[in-house]
């Protein structure tokens, strides 16, 4: 038998506190049920939206338990077999130690002093590039193979490994520091009948801990008792889930009286519960004590990471410690995202490696032939090594020698340089003051450094509505009570008054407890309340009782409400101002001041809200002894449960009341108690019991009254319409995925300019069956295919298009239609046999709005577009229900709004307002993509120009694997002479200023089409590099064959030739990067010309007398550089080589600018013209007559007349957006887009023709 406090007549407060919006799931199956069961469909939906994986953030650790969120979790205890259940007995360490539970020590660091070097090197050599260069280093140690010194490979390799190791060591240092800070905190532990100070790391499962106000919770505790009545305590979970409002936890009644040390020391209860898991809102277990069993839920638990607030003290029993706590279970790594450039770069590196092998094979074959035909005749002068016995074996060794020499075509510094550039781009985002929110003091934050360039390639944006497009600051706007609507104000003629024409707001001065910030404009509602209208009173009574709001009264009459959601707070505040003031609550009562009179209701049960039920109910007993059920929730849910005759109000929230029969309630309470005691699927059973009592509302057991409905207004954020319009002009399609009803979502669509009067038709899909949804989608496609379209000069024609070209046709008509689909219809549309039909229809529309969708459906829609469109997707949201969508998209953006920071923790980028998205994409994203593409093109160019010289030289040295350059030049070329200029370009370069990037959104399209770096551009860069290598080698070779010094001696010697070729190469690549740089800064100048100066300084130093005297075997060519560079012939050769290498590039770019300019070229030219005109106006003499010679024929272009008549180049009045010239630059982009839409299966980086 259960003790008296848990009887049905006196229900406990175990599940009367609905602070966590839990979803029923199939969780722990009890002590005898074996391992935890599989996730149900319901649980997967919840986990997709609400369980975040906290990212490793070693820097900027906040105070408190946030230090435990760093890095990859490592256990202090030994690896244990997976638990099937957790058993913890109070005050019995000997019993608990049998299970080998983890201690409370947490370790997020990966290394220590002894393991750092071997472990870090092991991790780094898991990278293919590092392993490859280690293999080359080993080859270089073989004398018969290598013609280069070992340091030519080991210096770049060690530099790369050292940079990465320093970064890893720095990160791990902060992890160690955080771990020590957390593990050494002090806690009061009950040991041997007295409280003793213990470090957190020494706390064990089964210990009883005392917490005091404002202290962090040391481990996952079962709340036993507290200083507050009924075993209540208040906690803040900001460090856990980001929510700053206080939550309530309650001890079970049987332990709530254990407030003194002596009684707690004798407590020997045993907790049997689920094994450690990462579900923050779920806990299933039971307490066995005094031969009785008491159910435990999440409302009885204090999780590590919480802070005790407004509670003097409390005691708790440690259930999970250290790495087993839910906080640490959630601190795993998120899924690693790679950009399309990363994937392409890996493919290209494999191709380059294949090209390297081919060159090695060609040169090895040449060596074998040369040795067989020529080398065998000169054995006296050029003897083979002892190990070489044939020309074939000589060719085999030559192959490996050339693999070493030509290895620089596979650049070891490429990946490190890419990471440095991405880090710089991330800092630019973090430092952008124009993305800083002054109101919230919140900067933009790049939480990852791997996705910056993909911000410049986004084609689809998936956005939440509430809190993302809107402010999530709810305002009680209207209501309907018994069929009468309140909220609108009418003038004397009966016309509805607009906001600016309204009189003063309603005066609530009669109510001393009213919220002065609350505004309402319709005085008739207050008059109805004052006149004692029973329906209106019952309506506001429901709003004041049916909620989970916590009330705090700091001063007399100053009430502060802590609500789980803004809409719930708005409803309770409205009831407060109209005279029904929620004043306080206990686990068993709710006190409301009704028109100045305090009324206390006995709280019998709370049937809490969750994302599946979409409603909540309370069962209370009023002072007259009548039992009533009050319920509020989404209209689509409640109206299905009401009697058909009552379904008259179709607004946002529907409310009603019922009187329950005492006998029925007693039976139902008994079933509820049994469900709460169940060890198997407790949440599912409770949900079934809740459904039973709420569904019986439409039965004949009692009279039903539909009270009314409420309309809560959530205003748009500032700048949302402008942002959406700007992104649409950039050819970014925006889909809104929201849980709101259809009417609300459509209204928001019009407010934020997603839906406009230019939209030909809005297709609404509301089918409840597969056949209905398929038919509605088919009709929508037919209307789009059969619609008249413009053929020119304003004429239209009607054309029936063949179904075989459906996709391309639908893409062609995109921009004239919109699609709105409900959640139940979307469930059918996402089925395997219909998803392509839905995708084709949706992608052809200008705007798509999905209503009443679950978190799982949001992720499914994003995954559908990712899978079939091969386009870069971005998801943006602010709440826990957006986490699954954010993680599924290529790029996730979290908004730090009113719903905590769950979305921010799961995101790749975060800021505080939706309007910052335009700057993130159109400025930072476009620049990052441009910079990365230019960096890669130049990087491959300079490396091929450098390496291919060895290939050409092989044909003139008997394929002997002799190098052209000095070995020190080979070592320093990539890490000193050419590294900093390309890094400066990759970090700082711009094609147009940020203002022009926002003014001309069409500049964003090359990134979407992947035009700036693809396989075609790669081959162009390689061809340019090979061309440069041919000239850099053969021009000096041809000159030196006939040239002589000033004194008549022969100029041609090996070292002079090497100095000339190396100098020509460095100057050529330096001039080339000067041509590639579009935005010059002092840093660019310093790095480019400074690198040239460093080259000459090192060159003269290596040929100096001083180094020769110190290292005569290493620096044998004394004075060669000074002697060679003193010859005019050498400088003429260098100049000729530079001109011949650069001149074709300059000529090609000049012709391209003149004949086929890009839009960015046009924008730069127009900016230059405006600047010159401004200077001319400033310097023009007064009274001077201007020349009548016209530049019209040169400046004017065909097509502007038609463009102006079409209106496409007009500025948006509220946006200040300038149209762009439809020159050939934009024309070929549109042509390319049509080509890609005609062949949707083709990869985006396929070489393009025309």
Strand content: 15-25%
Mean pLDDT: 79
Radius of gyration: 37 Å
Secondary structure tally, helices: 42
Q: Order of strands across the widest beta sheet? A: 16-37-36-35-17-29-34-33-30
**What structural category characterises the helix and strand content?**
alpha+beta
Q: Characterize the main sheet.
A: 9 strands, mixed
In short:
Residues 904-1157 form the P-type ATPase C-terminal domain. With 1250 residues, this protein is of the alpha+beta class. Helix content is 43%, strand content 16%.
Task: Describe the protein.
It is a single chain. The protein is of the alpha+beta class. Helix content is 43%, strand content 16%. A nine-stranded mixed beta sheet has the order 16-37-36-35-17-29-34-33-30, with helices on both faces. It has a nine-stranded antiparallel beta sheet with strand order 19-18-28-27-26-25-24-23-22. The protein has a six-stranded antiparallel beta sheet with strand order 5-4-6-15-7-13. α5 (151-183) packs across α29 (967-977). The longest helix has 39 residues, at 916-954. Residues 89-154 form the P-type ATPase N-terminal domain. It is found in: Membrane. It is an enzyme of class 7 (translocase).
